[in-house]
Amino acid sequence: MIGAVAAVVLVIAVIGFSALSKTRSNTPPVDNPATDAPVVENSVTEVPVGSPTSSELGIGSTMTGKDDMILMYVPAGEFTMGSDNGGEDEKPVHTVYLDAFWIDQTEVTNKMYAACVAADACAPPATSSSQTQDSYYGNAQFDNYPVIYVTWDKAKAFCAWAGRRLPTEAEWEKAARGTDERAYPWGNSIKGTLANYYNKVGDTTAAGSYEDGKSPYGALDMAGNVLEWVSDWYDESYYESSPASNPLGPARGNLRVLRGGSWNKSDYSVRSALRSMQGPTNSDNSIGFRCALSIP
């Protein structure tokens, strides 16, 4: 059985995923009353026939085509979302069921994003610098560092080009902390050797630098390095009425959710349950993203 699983993973890693077959919308378009601008739909993208399913693969990894990102498998099931030790928007703690999905092993890198720009499917970051580097994006020395200065729309465009989508807030949290209510991807105690946070480095670090800080599913840098856009609109009281199965977030709003904290955030701010938010047109040197992929 183990040999068969390994064979499936190897074949997929070699041939990559084919183009996505379709996208199904889960919420109708609604105008944003605050901005009079159309609200982008929350959606879940299906993988094509022949992609691995939860019955074929357990916890493991595969690779997609265009950007060569390694994806980590998160099995279907329930997990506990939220925290009683955080802000009011992390309450009430509640049980959420999620279908199985794949999550990017690392944040999307400069090199990956540049490929999307070269294909005319993405707009360049707002600036090519970082906190300490005048030449960051477009500099081969930082190819494997997370792309920054990207808005929510730019992150969404990249994921679509790569054949994936932004993860939901619930998917992101489960991928980060697993099912045992741990505070951080690795456990309940913060350690400077497990994440890039609190200005200990003073800038981003190469994606995947903190192997020992990986999540229960093998995802890296889900605490610190850069904040990560997810698909959901932000609503402080959303957990009070959130669906128990595959929540997609509010149908509309003014702010989008970011998760994971960043290189300049405190240990409190890199907790897996913490919810951050910004306007979707905002970008800075601490904001990046990763993508996800549904399993039909």
Q: What does this 3D model show about the protein?
A:
The protein contains four helices and twelve strands. The protein has 296 residues and is of the alpha+beta class. The protein has one domain: paralog of FGE (formylglycine-generating enzyme). The strands form four sheets. It has a four-stranded antiparallel beta sheet with strand order 3-4-7-12. A four-stranded mixed beta sheet has the order 10-9-8-11. Strands 1-2 form a two-stranded antiparallel ribbon. A hairpin with a 6-residue loop joins strand 3 and strand 4.
Number of strands: 12
Rounded to the nearest angstrom, the distance between the terminal CA atoms is 23 Å
CATH topology: paralog of FGE (formylglycine-generating enzyme)
Helix content: 10-25%
Oligomer state of the chains in this structure: single chain
Helical segment count: 4
CATH architecture: Alpha-Beta Complex
Give me the Rg, rounded: 18 Å
Mean pLDDT: 85
Indicate the proportion of strand residues.
Answer: 15-25%
* Number of structurally distinct domains: 1
Q: Tell me the overall shape.
A: globular
Low-confidence segments, ≥5 residues, pLDDT <50? 1-58
Topology as H/E string?
Answer: HEEEEEEEHHHEEEEE
**Major beta sheet, strand line-up:** 3-4-7-12
Main CATH class: Alpha Beta
How would you name the CATH homologous superfamily? paralog of FGE (formylglycine-generating enzyme)
The structure class reads alpha+beta
Q: The biggest beta sheet, please?
A: 4 strands, antiparallel
